[in-house]
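Message: I would value a second opinion on how I read folds in token form. Give me a protein, with the fold worked out from its sequence. Write it directly below this note and I will take it from there.
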Amino acid sequence: MAEFTRTERVDWEGLPLALREAVAEQVGPPAKVETIVEGRRTPLVATFTTRSGDRLFVKAAPDYGTRAGEQLARELAIAPYVTAIAPELLYAVKAGGWRLAAFEWVDGTRANYMIDSPDIPKVLQTLADLDRLQVPPDVPLIWFERRWSSYAPAGRELTRLAGPALLHTDINPTNLRIGPTATLVDWAAASRGARFVNPADFVICLIASGHPPRDAEAIVSDLPAWRDADPLDIDYYARTVATAWLHAFWNLTNPWAKAVMHAAQQWAMHRHDQT
């Protein structure tokens, strides 16, 4: 489930001095830190360039008591298990009541999900690779069905969304960097749940990018996570997403939030009309 809650942002100089000093000791002092505008969940999202010219992607958030801190801790916990499709975590620094994560820099462009985009096959391969990843049970991920407990119109059926599979849950174009492969970034909302959720989320993104619902489903039809799913489970997810996002995104003006809200309604009606 994509979320559009924004966090108050800070720049490099706004971080606690103790954290900046600890980063300088472990990583080296920065030659330049450029704040990245995209990114809703984390107080600092930036490009960090060392004096030797190396570029890193960094995130920083308070260590305790904030949602942003919990999400960054989750990214740190999942990082060792997703390096096949995600940037490698190079440094993790804690000081001054904050933590900072420094990831390898990934060259590439934002994914294009439009009709006939050459990026789509690369994204499908990344989703297939994601489906094969295994994460130990002690890694503190969110149980996906619990995220919907306040929204689901038929809460007794939430078990349809449960399972052990690793879910990214925010497969929007900004979170896929396209180069030779599609690299999946921003694991702040990583969850455990039903396998079909990853391709189902991509279906909604494809519809939001202009694909008719039937064509969007055809694009993911060869993915085992989709192919092996019970259609009634997918129907339930479509209904749940459409209902929840209509409520959660009603007053938002973010263009992508509006696009996926409309896409979820289209998808739910498509699933309904097929029954």
